[in-house]
Amino acid sequence: MVELRAGSVDDEVQTLPLRSADDVVRVRQAVRTCAVELGFSLVDQTKLVTAASELARNTIDYGRGGDCDLVVVRSGERVGLRLVFRDDGPGIADVEQALRDGYTTGNGLGMGLGGARRLVDEFAIDSTVGVGTTIEVTRWTWKR
Amino acid sequence: MDRIPILKVGENLLVTIQVDLDDRVALALQDDLTEKIVATRAHGVLIDISSLEVVDSFIGRMLGNIAAMSRVLDARTVVVGMQPQVAITLVELGLSLPDIATALSVDAGMEALARAGGG
Amino acid sequence: MSTSLSPALAAALSTSDEGMLDAWVAAQLAAGTMRRDLIDEDDLRSESREFLRLLADAARANASQTPTDPEWGAVRGFLSDLSRSRAIRGFSPSETATFVLSLKEPVFDRIRGSVTNADELTAELWSATTALDGLALFTAETFQRAREDVIKRQQQELLELSTPVVKLWDGVLALPLIGTLDSARTQVVMESLLQRIVETNSPIAIIDITGVPTVDTLVAQHLLKAVAAARLMGADCIISGIRPQIAQTIVHLGVDLGDVVTKATMADAVSQALDRQGFAIVRRDGGV
Lengths: 144, 119, 288
Hints:
The complex is a heterotrimer of chains A (144), B (119) and C (288). With 144 residues, chain A is α+β, with helices and mostly antiparallel strands. Chain A is 35% helix and 34% strand. Chain A has four helices and five strands. In chain A, helix 1 packs antiparallel against helix 2. The termini of chain A are far apart. With 119 residues, chain B is an alpha/beta fold. Chain B contains four helices and five strands; from the N terminus they run ββαβαβαβα. In chain B, strands 1-2-3-4-5 form a five-stranded mixed sheet. The model of chain B has no long low-confidence stretch (mean pLDDT 91). In chain C, strands 1-2-3-4-5 form a five-stranded mixed sheet, sandwiched between helices. In chain C, strand 4, helix 10 and strand 5 form a beta-alpha-beta unit. The interface between A and B is medium-sized, with 27 and 20 residues.
């Protein structure tokens, strides 16, 4: 009867453009600042910032540029930071494979999605060839 | 654009990375190092990353490249001072960089290079 | 389509005043479930006043009977914070739900005063009880979640406190693991080890699993990741205390230990570690 939606979204959404390598650094710094503010442990901060760096690069290198939203989410005793990477690029034909490949070097297609997935608590990807890709990742921590 | 300074210490080169590297600076470092290894006939390269708070796959691969290029130029590379949370994250990413020598500190790294005949 | 609040109820809520506040606070204090030891009257009064204000806003915004509708957002937010705070302070779920339920009496009184027709009155009271029950149930559910979370959080914090990394000698750390390892505990312990490696500048860490009855794939993976991370930092790990059963399990599971040095006993591991660090243990003359 009474439904509690996990992860209610605050008004706190920050959007950053992803067009050049400089933007990757900016996203890392923004994610770091936000993670520190929310009280994430150093290890968790680092994992999230690194995941953000990987996904931001992907958006620029493969997605032909896009945007990244930083969203604060809340659920009970937990607070989380959700990052949404959006692009209108070529899309990923075989998502399963992209998630598996990780760092098989020499392939050139080592997109690092699998690696990024291991660094976060929640990972969701929606990609259509010829239309674009959206990747949503979230890390949770205990409220301060 | 800032370039990372490379110091000559005895027969070795010391690189201290203190800033959040962007792609251009990282690529410039690779170029500068290769040149300098040849120019100084260095036996060893010590990369101090004790101030680096984030190492993503790009930087990880850069370190791997530097080690590989130095090897081709007959120099040994040691990466020192990786912070615990960075190490944990890199391993989780799937990059354990098995071909790179590591040490806890600049001193330990210098010792390792000396032991390996780096002088 | 949700039914909107009945007119007298909506009016009662939108025009709540000091009179209603007093009556409600009195009802809460009189309730058998009031925890005077956990909350004082002033705090209770200001919480109640705030809740009435939010209810008034919702009623004026044409809220419906359904507490999950958007107009009730601020009210739900307030109740979530309230339940969380009460859960942490040690209230029970029913003590917390009483906050909302005790509002019925003053609201009913207000409605009775403004409606004379018997059928209308029944409809109004029914509307009031449905709305307030909905909010009370919401409160009880958020309370439950908050309490579960608090417990989980406390468990995790306890884990972080109980990680034993021992300095055996200059440059040699030991981590004797005891008991069953689960994923969470292993991760916490490994992070602790890596931190100590940096703090003590120790190039060798002995991870002893003599006291670990079984190792499953997940735990083995965490151990291997810790070893890999230590190596990236410049330290080597020796895993010791591998009992025959565990050795079999590792092989059966197909876990690849790679280059990781393993020793059957901690003594062997210590001996090798000291040797690598350039130490030798020598028996004094006379053997005493």
